[in-house]
Amino acid sequence: MAGSLEQKLHELVEPIVASYGLTLWGLRYRQGSSSAHLQIFVEGANGVDADACGEITNALSPLLDSADLIDPAYILEVSSPGLDRILFTPEQLHQSVGQEVTLTLKMACENRKKLQGKLMAVESDGSVVIADKSAGKDFTVAYENIALARVVPDFSSLL
Q1: 122 contacts: CB under 8 Å, gap ≥ 6
Q2: Which residues contact 22 (CB under 8 A, 6 or more apart)?
Q3: Contact of 43 with 25, CB cutoff 8 Å
Q4: Residue 68: which pLDDT band, with cuts at 50, 70 and 90?
Q5: Other C-beta atoms lying within 10 Å of the C-beta of residue 72
Q6: pTM for the whole thing?
Q7: Nearest Cα to Cα of residue 13 among 35, 45, 38
Q8: pLDDT for res 2
Q9: Are the CB atoms for 151 and 100 separated by under 8 Å?
Q10: What are the backbone angles phi and psi of residue 38, rounded to the nearest 5°?
Q11: Residue 80 C-beta-side C-alpha neighbours within 13 Å
């Protein structure tokens, strides 16, 4: 990933986010047919409010424009990762062991490209073990085969 667009954006964005006392949870860049979309997810010890997201957006917008890393027509979105947060790194997956997650795979595993269930483990080689609900069994998936990992919120604890 060294030298990739996402890595360059990460290096540009992270110090700005840190200057607001927040942590860069992750970022996602998608190129559409007419414009691009850059989502930046930030997190703080006491959460993140809309004012902080707005201030970071105002600080990042001219910086991103002058860095000229992405097409001129793009949408910049700064937000908290939310309850259904995307898990960007093996470390974030490891922190989520025991929670319900959804994995979207790059290559099908037993004819399935989407798994959902309890995240059982993240192995030392980076592979992920998930107890898939619909199949009723555990799947071990290589980290490199995960296109998207997302936490499934547990709203029962909020009742």
Answers
A1: 90, 93, 94, 97, 128, 129
A2: 42, 43, 44, 48, 52, 56
A3: yes
A4: confident
A5: 8
A6: 0.86
A7: 38
A8: 44
A9: yes
A10: -110, 115
A11: 13
